[in-house]
Amino acid sequence: MVVFHKEIDLNTVANRPSYHDVTSDVMEALASSGVQNGICVVSSPHTTCAVFFEEFMHDKNYYGDEFLQVDLNEALDKIVPVQRTEGQYHSPGPEHIAYGMAKTDPDYPAKEWTMLNTDGHLRSTLLGASETLIIKDGNLLNGKVGYIYFVDFDQTRERRRKCNIVIMGE
User: Fold this and answer.
1) What is the CATH number of the domain that holds 158?
2) pLDDT at 109
3) InterPro entries recorded for this chain (predicted)?
């Protein structure tokens, strides 16, 4: 059995969800792995990010987001409104704010506003942190129009994110 791992870096934007088509990265990893039959897992290690499988849309808005992504944002806005101020959600509470303010990690600046991302956590929970697809005869079974997307729902600031691809099989 072969286990192949590839990690990709993604730069996200602030003030809106940041979508990334990672399909070509997955296809490159599959080709490099040599696996003919098995599974492919695409995963995010970040708690405000999700990985999902969806049809590619040709139409895009002025930000470059595909119309299905815009529709997804509008649907999620109805059930999980964007966090604009403290107290809008129970999270983050005072203990979590104190924890965040005490961190000295440059990836987590000690600023209260960076923790106003409860909406990002809830949205990523709804979509899930990973997708698993089948590999058969050296091909990823993603259909003719199925693409794999990584999204960061944390709109508070630009971030550098990781996406992991693991391919297992023979």
Assistant:
1) 2.60.120.460
2) 85
3) UPF0047_YjbQ-like (IPR001602), YjbQ-like_sf (IPR035917)
